[in-house]
UniProtKB/TrEMBL annotation:
Signal peptide annotation: none
GO cellular component entries: membrane
Entry-linked InterPro entries: MAPEG-like_dom_sf (IPR023352), Membr-assoc_MAPEG (IPR001129)
SUPFAM superfamilies: MAPEG domain-like
Organism: Pontixanthobacter luteolus
Stated name of the protein: MAPEG family protein
Residue spans crossing the bilayer: 6-24, 74-99, 119-143
Keyword tags: Membrane, Transmembrane, Transmembrane helix
Protein location: Membrane
Length: 148
């Protein structure tokens, strides 16, 4: 089961890169259209500086990319812990559910972005993340190291 639990993590890494390119592919033309080319950006400028400068629906992709750099950072070590300790079928299923929900969240936030629905998707994925984290704690805390 070790490889199977790592597959959802690999997919989420790849999805994060998809969102990076989607963000860049919509943001860069919007920046150019707004007359704020990258060469004209003030030193030390950040993506947040584009709020109100380029259309909100373009910024949604950037917001989601930032989200993918937040909570999933605890998903990755949980999955690695489970892989090392021996993930079960339930762990693999939960990992895939988490990844599916994060992808759904991304697509929804990048396109429709109605907060109540987006929040519900986030809450459900967070519950799955809590379960994964608890399972990672359980397999480590209650591990039977055996006799050498």
């Amino acid at each position: 089961m070790q490889a199977q639990i790592l597959a959802p993590a690999a997919v989420l890494v790849l999805w994060s890169l998809v969102m990076l390119f989607w963000m860049a592919g919509t943001r860069l033309p919007a920046i150019k259209k707004a007359g704020n080319g990258l060469g004209e950006a003030k030193p030390g400028g950040r993506g947040q500086d584009l709020e109100g400068v380029i259309p909100d629906n373009v910024q949604w992709k950037a917001h989601n990319y930032a989200h993918l750099m937040e909570q999933p950072t605890i998903f990755y070590p949980a999955v690695i812990i489970l892989a090392i300790m021996g993930a079960g079928a339930v762990d693999v299923t939960l990992a895939w559910i988490y990844v599916a929900l994060r992808i759904i969240h991304s697509v929804y936030q990048a396109t429709v972005n109605k907060v109540p629905v987006r929040f519900l998707i986030f809450v459900v994925s967070s519950i799955v993340m809590v379960i994964l984290a608890l399972r990672a704690v359980m397999v480590t805390l209650f591990a039977n190291p055996g006799v050498l």
